[in-house]
Amino acid sequence: MRFVARLCLVPESCGRPRIQPVLEDEDRVLGGTEAVPGSWPWHAGIYTNQLYPAHICSGVLISERHVLTAVHCLTYV
Predict the structure, then answer these.
(1) Which residue has the higher pLDDT, 1 or 15?
(2) Could you tell me which residue, 52 or 77, shows the higher pLDDT?
(3) Could you read off the pLDDT of 18-68 as tens digits, one per residue?
(4) Angstrom distances, CA of residue 57 to CA of 14, 52, 72
(5) Which has the closest alpha carbon to 39: 22, 56, 23?
(6) Secondary structure of residue 12 in the 3-state scheme
């Protein structure tokens, strides 16, 4: 029950973009929009540079030095 009580203290603005997205006619994700750089400051892209630079996964910042992601994102890193 403590977890639920703490969750209720999160501000309404949490999880909403600081900068509104730009709508494009040709989006890569069905119904999606391109994110404006800096609009989701808690989102982290995870890249590899083994053969060539490539985006492999995403994560979320949980502190100044830690990113939370799924274990399958780090299988080949």
Answers:
(1) 15
(2) 52
(3) 666 665 555 456 667 777 888 888 899 888 887 778 888 899 999 989 999
(4) 22, 15, 9
(5) 22
(6) coil
- Better pLDDT: 11 or 53: 53
Q: Are the C-beta atoms of 48 and 77 separated by less than 8 Å?
A: yes
Select 2-74's CATH number: 2.60.120.10, 3.90.226.10, 2.40.10.10, 2.60.40.1180.
2.40.10.10
Candidates 40, 69, 66; CA nearest to 56 is: 69
AA letter at 62: I
Report how far residue 32's alpha carbon sits from residue 48's, in angstroms, rounded to the nearest whole number.
Answer: 25
Per DSSP (E only), the strands in the chain are 43-48, 54-61, 67-68
Residue 56: what pLDDT?
86
Tokens 């030095």 — which residue? 65
Report phi then psi at 6, rounded to 5.
-70, -35
